[in-house]
Each structure stands twice: as C-alpha cells, then as structure tokens.
Amino acid sequence: MTQATLSQTSTAGSSIVPENVKSFTPSDISRIFPAQKTKALELRLSTAKERITKLKKLKATIFKYQDEIQKALYSDFQKSAREVDISEILPSIAEINDSIRHLKHWMRPVNVSTPQTLIGSTSKIVYEPKGVCLIIAPWNYPFHLAIAPLAAAISAGNTVMLKPSEFTPKTATVLKVMLSEIFSENEVAVFEGDVSVSTALLEQPFDHIFFTGSTPVGKIVMAAAAKNLTTVTLELGGKSPTVVAEDADLKLTAERVMWGKFLNAGQTCVAPDYLLLPKSKVDAFVGYAKEATEKFFNAKEDGFAENRDFCRIINNKNFGRVSSYIEDAVQKGAKVAYGGKVNGNENFIAPTVLVDVPLHARIMEDEIFGPLLPIVTYDSLDEAIGIINSKPKPLALYIFTDRSKTAKYILKRTSSGGAVVNDVILHLVNSNLPFGGVNHSGHGSYHGLFGFKAFSHERSVLQTPKLSIVKMMYPPYTGFVKFIVDFTTKWFV
C-alpha cells in the first residue's frame, strides 16, 4: 500500500489497515510470544552496529510518515501539525539520535573495583537484554510515548510487543504500518484493540513491562506483573504543583506556566496541575496569564474553539470528567477568573483559570488532565510545602523564584519524580536526566542511558585467579582460619 493510500485512510471515519499488514488479535498472542522468545535469544548476540542500523531505519521511517502521523493525530483529537512536530516527532527523533550516538559506549562492560579480600580478581558489569518486553502506550502523546520506549528497547537488544491506546486508533494504525515496514512480527509486533487485548497481553510472562498511563491502571499492571515476577517500569502521573515565590517574575512565570498547562489541552502527565501563589499576587498573575494565553493562540477568550492550534479533549468520557471539575469547584466556592467555556459536541474546554479554590474540591484531589489551572493561595512557603506534602509524591515539581536559596529550601523539603526551577516540562528534553516518578507517580525511569538500562539487566561478573585468599577460609575451621578471618576483618574489610 502506498503512502498516498494510507494518507486517505488515516483521516477516514473507519480504521483501515493495509492489506500487507496483518491486524493481530488476542489469539495471535500465544503464537507471537514464543516466536519473540526465540528471537530474543538471537538478539542477545546483536552488535551495536546492528542495533544502530535498526534505529536509523526507525528514524527514516518516522520522517517518511511524518504527514501521516500529523493527520492521524489531528483525526484522533484535533492536535495541530505544528504541535505534533514539537511534542511527538521532535522528541522521538531526539531519543533515537541520542541512542545512535552513545550506544557503543553504553553497551561496553563497565569495569568496577574489587575489594582486597578478593585480591587478584576482576569485576565488571555487563548489560544484557531483558528479553521479550511489553510496551503499553497512552493516548495523550500516542506516538512519542510509543516510539521513545521502543527505541530504548531496541537499543538494549530486546523484542517488543507494543499495545497503543484504543483511544487514538488512527495513530495506532500508522504505528502498525510504520513498524511493519521495518520489523518482522517476531521482533516487534503492534497489537491494536481495547482493554481486552491489554488484559490478554498481561497474562504472558514477559521479561519486562513498560507502562505509561494513570496511577490506578498502573496498579493493575503491577499486580499482573507480580504473578510472573516480571520487572516493570511505570510512568504514571499525579498532581504536579507549581510554587510561585514572592520574588518571582510574574509575567515570565505566567507565560511559561500557561504554555505548559495548555500544551496538548492540558493532557500532559507533567503539566502544571495546580498553582501555589502568594495571596497578594493573584490578580496580577491572572492578568498576565490571560495576556499570555491569548497571545499563544492568537485569540480572545471566546475564540479558542475556532483555533486549530488548540486541541480537544480525547473523548466524551474525559470531557465529562474534566468539565465536572469546574462545576464542583464553583459549587464549593471557587471562581472562574478566566475561560470556563465548554462544548460537549466537540469535546472542547477552553483554557481556564480558577481562583479561591478550596483544597477539598475534586480538582485538587484528582489529576486534572485538561486545560484547567486551579490557583491556591498561601501565606508562607512552609504552608505551600505542607500542601504539597499532604498529597502523594508528584511526577514533577515546578518552582519560580529569583533566589536559588528559595529553590533549594523547597527542593530539600519535598519529593517528586523530577523538578524544574523557573520553567515547566523542559526536564524531559535533557536525555542526560532520568525521567520517571516516585511511588504513586511511577517506578523506574528512562530517556537516554536510563532508557537503555530500563530494558537491560545489569549482570555482575567476577573472575577469580587460581590462587585465592578465600581458600584459606575453607573448613575445617582451625585456629589458622580464625587468625586469617580476624586479620582480614581488621585490616581489609
């Protein structure tokens, strides 16, 4: 099937898979899983050059299908082409390029020191593939959050069974078509379908499971993995707070927070979830927030529905959930300071800022995953820190201040998966930083070397000489053995 034909079908009302690309069903799992087990044994011996060749093919195929990816994401939830480039294509290519540049170094065994009690021995860490891996991708960044872990798994030498989200079916189809061009099903297989497909996949004894999604579903994945003692990487979410200190540049803060909050219509796991602001700064911040938001989308408050750069909520169910937060917060005393417009026919929710939000409102309890920014005021930094610490540990923490002392004060007294000072979200861009959560916001991390390690087993290898001091401690436990043990304990341990 040509690209032109795929382009026509990717925006059509029904999902059409090219004739040469098989659509896998749950019954295929029992056939493909053992085939990938066999292939995984072969890939253990693959070289850096062979893996890099595959990564280069993956990169070339992404560029080949760039238009199709854009059209699929617009069809799924009206995500604009430029936002697709910025938040889906660019970071995927960056991850692949980082692996291509560094893979030879990552794959080398790491020599480590050996204690004097093992004098004459050598020690090293060898990175070996985990084997057959399951990647379950989410709907909010359905392309990037499928490709980034896939690239890491390929770099580490694994086979992969990939389950895209059923909420973004057009993107899932493009992923299947793309990856079928590069890989056979015994190396990378894409399974479209609903939760029943995910359930069937989770019954298999995978060597590793990589899941991106909500905390409640993450618990289900972890429970399923436990039955087979499968290792997991869980990239979850939570309520990522933004603390604005008294001395912060409010205009700069508003611009950066509004960008991060309304990117992808707020459907971002590391979006600023709520704002902690000094009481005296609320009116000024709301004014700057309004100014920045209307500048971003070149629209006044009533014009966002017509703007093609502002995407929609993924489906009616999530629209109902997010819009209900506004109603609940207002009923409990909050005020809509900006926005608040909704349209259920289009799953549209305008950029919205709420003030006077009580802590017991549902918008302050659930992860929002929508274009709503609740503002909570505080009298002291310790009060703001107390609010953060009263909730599960977040995936990200954002701090705006002109004083490094203030940033350090907050960082030392809180915990989060990652943190950014004087900006939001951008820690994801640095592949030298591990990306992941802590406790409720996730287990494990990836990006760059950390992604390679997530899909690798760090195998310890010790090689000893024929003559070893340990032999002197073999039984029978004579007085001489006691002397050797005492001497070693005193001087070498």
Automatic annotation (TrEMBL):
The protein's matches in Pfam families, at most eight in alphabetical order, are given as:
Aldedh (PF00171)
* Record bears the keyword Oxidoreductase: yes
Task: Report one GO cellular component.
Answer: cytoplasm
GO molecular function terms attached to this record: aldehyde dehydrogenase (NAD+) activity
Every Aldehyde dehydrogenase domain range: 20-460
**Any keyword RNA-binding?**
no
Which keywords belong to this entry? NAD, Oxidoreductase
The annotated active site, in chain numbering, is 235, 269
Name the domain of life this protein comes from: Bacteria
Q: Which InterPro entries match?
A: Ald_DH/histidinol_DH, Ald_DH_C, Ald_DH_CS_CYS, Ald_DH_CS_GLU, Ald_DH_N, Aldehyde_DH_dom, Aldehyde_DH_NAD(P)
Q: Which GO terms describe its biological process?
A: aldehyde metabolic process
Q: Which PANTHER family match?
A: ALDEHYDE DEHYDROGENASE (PTHR43570), ALDEHYDE DEHYDROGENASE ALDX-RELATED (PTHR43570:SF20)
Q: Give the UniProt family note.
A: Belongs to the aldehyde dehydrogenase family.
Q: What is this protein called?
A: Aldehyde dehydrogenase
The organism of origin for this protein: Leptospira idonii
The root-end lineage is: Bacteria, Pseudomonadati, Spirochaetota, Spirochaetia, Leptospirales
